[in-house]
Design goal:
This is 5'-deoxynucleotidase. This protein is mostly helical. Helices cover about 60% and strands about 5% of the residues. The protein has a two-stranded antiparallel ribbon.
Length: about 270
């Protein structure tokens, strides 16, 4: 799914991603259509400082996401620095609450869910899922609330945007790298980066379950919009058919589809 809304640090405008690097002057931003106030804002200056200082990190996990070491400063100083980094990060994540999921917007759904709405219910799925041998349930919950986090910067990119999959991945990885750097010297940055990459690569049992959660949540939401707004959103069910990887995902998807058939019968009465 995708959105045309703008951010503060990186912007998605049509099919172009604009990166606010230290070398991008305010006049350049003005030519791109962004206000001078954005280019000179505290958020921009902070982003530029973070970007220019990132080269001092001594360790990389091989994906462009720095696994930052623990700080050796005193507790008081560490908490102060940590608080500043945390609020910078959380302020950026605010866009997840305000950016609507583009698939619903493109189909004229009234009051469509936000990106964070989608991730929150996926987190609940991890919370209530049955125990599965070899699967870390807590990790599933964390992965669910991280998997779309880069969309706080790049927006919700959909196939209708005409952006190749490789380019979409590159933009999201660059955005995630920036978000991790915002957290400063914090092991949580490493954890977020690793969870996101694990999900993207579909490389573990937890990733496969959360990938299924992503599809399950989408078709459940589609069913709810069909019932509440009398819309035909069959394309979302067709797009996920045969693509569930786990027994849990298949069972939940089958239950949703069975309820859709019952609701169709009620509508036709």
């Amino acid at each position: 799914m995708g959105s045309g809304s703008q951010g503060v640090l990186l912007f998605k405008s049509s099919s172009t991603l604009v990166s606010l690097s230290p070398s991008l002057a305010s006049t350049q931003l003005s030519r791109l259509g962004f206000s001078k106030s954005i280019a000179t804002s505290k958020a921009y200056r902070m982003a530029a400082t973070e970007a220019s200082s990132s080269s001092s990190s001594s360790v990389s996990d091989g994906h462009g996401i720095n696994p930052l070491d623990s700080s050796s400063a005193s507790n008081g100083t560490a908490f102060s620095s940590s608080a500043s980094s945390a609020i910078d990060f959380l302020s950026l994540c605010h866009r997840l609450k305000t950016t609507k999921r583009a698939g619903w917007v493109l189909r004229d759904v009234k009051d469509p869910e936000s990106i964070s709405d989608h991730m929150y219910r996926m987190g609940l799925m991890g919370l209530i899922m049955a125990d599965v041998p070899g699967v870390n349930r807590d990790k599933c919950i964390k992965m669910a609330i991280v998997h779309d986090i880069a969309e706080a910067i790049v927006g919700d990119i959909t196939p209708s945007d005409g952006i190749p999959k490789e380019e979409k991945s590159r933009r999201e990885r660059e955005a995630l790298d920036h978000m991790c750097k915002l957290l400063g010297v914090d092991a949580r940055a490493k954890e977020i980066g690793e969870l996101w990459m694990e999900y993207e690569e579909n490389s573990t049992p937890e990733a496969k379950i959360v990938k299924d959660f992503d599809k399950v949540e989408m078709i459940l939401q589609a069913l709810e919009y069909e019932n509440g707004q009398r819309k035909d959103l069959d394309e979302f069910f067709k797009s996920t058919a045969g693509k569930f990887q786990t027994d849990l995902g298949k069972a939940w998807a089958a239950e949703i589809k069975s309820r859709r058939k019952k609701d169709d019968q009620l509508f036709n009465c």
